[in-house]
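Page 47, continued from p. 46.
Same chain as before, 463 aa.
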Amino acid sequence: MAVQHSDVLVFFGATGDLAKKQIFPALYGMVENGELSIPVVGVAFSKWTLKDLKERATESVKAARPDADAATLKKLLSVLKYVDGDYADEATFNALKEAIGEASRPTHYLAIPPSLFETVVKGLKRVGLNKNARVVVEKPFGRDLKSAQELARVISLAFNEEDVFRIDHYLGKEEIMNLLYFRFANSFGEPVWNRNYVQSVQITVAEDFGVQGRGAFYESAGALRDVLENHIFQIVALLAMEAPAYQGYSAVHQAKTAVFKAMRPLAPEDLVRGQFEGYRQEAGVAPDSDVETFVAVRLFIDSWRWADVPFYLRTGKALGATAHEIMVTFKRPPQALFEDAVSPQHHPNYLRFRLQPDSEIALGARVKTPGEEFVGDTRELVVGTEHPEERPPYERLLTDALEGDRALYSTEEAVEAAWAVVEPVLTNHPPVIPYKRGTWGPAEANDLLADNDEWHVPTLKEN
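Result:
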């Protein structure tokens, strides 16, 4: 049966920060691309009117798109509707049903705190708005395995799994999608993409700024939950997955889930937690906080392809640069035909993926230097993958949700499998180690590395 396009988009939390920063600019882009002409019904409990919502939408779009086209913005405003009311009040959902009118294939986007999910889901079911409908759930998908399972239970009260879209904006980034394409659109890498040739895989997701006034949120999350368990694990899955058995999003989901299930559960000795100096003085942060703003992890995937290959993962705030980078390091030549090619002073061959701030793919290889001696140095063959017309992640993901395309969304099975990996260290872990702003985290992170490995420090282009 063909997947049907939704005929109305309902988004709860229409007056919130996420709507202002991401959703309205995404909706504008969808209108601009001819992908949105259906009604968009905002729902919130803010004592607003439709006029207020349109003013917020206009402000949001112009902030994100100073060059916004007046006709396109007018078209977006023309499809907006608004329902104001308490989510716990049945009258709110009766009003929503009336606002939806004749539409019969709604997509409900829950841009609200997870604590409100059950109230909203039950309200939708009570008035029949869960029938022939989809629901988009904003991350985080729980705080641990138990809460992830509880979240799934709540959503299942009204929606089938195939109608649930778990949105993680990171999966909508062009650079992340390119990982999947690069791996399986090219044949030259497959023979060496395994334990026989790969020495280690390293992923760094670093930011040079702190928590930026979001101390209270970070106290409830921390780097392990906020970035490593979801964003970085998704990258690991794309790098480590087997080729999908067939074309289609379900095949990709199965291959990624198999990676999560093959990940060895973390032990306390597999991670180093850090906290930048000054974090405890941030608003909303406990004076004795043990929440990590940096985490480094040594991960193993117990599969035939990746057995005993270490995956070194790290993420943090207030680090030396803002950079998201992957480094796949290959083993050195098995025979020392050229001494410098196997010298530990020189980096072995590698494949480097820069995801941010500038996207590129680079192959590091030894090249002979001019002269009679057989010596050389490492040079990079670089391909820039930056594109000026790259679509913002929310724009792409919301378009996919309306079309029923789940390729870039997570399944409940994958979510629970990923939580199972970090579950042992969510509370049983070493204390945080202070580190100075502008560094690359605690020096103790080096203890996770094998003798022949070192942390790769991203080198950014000068502006």
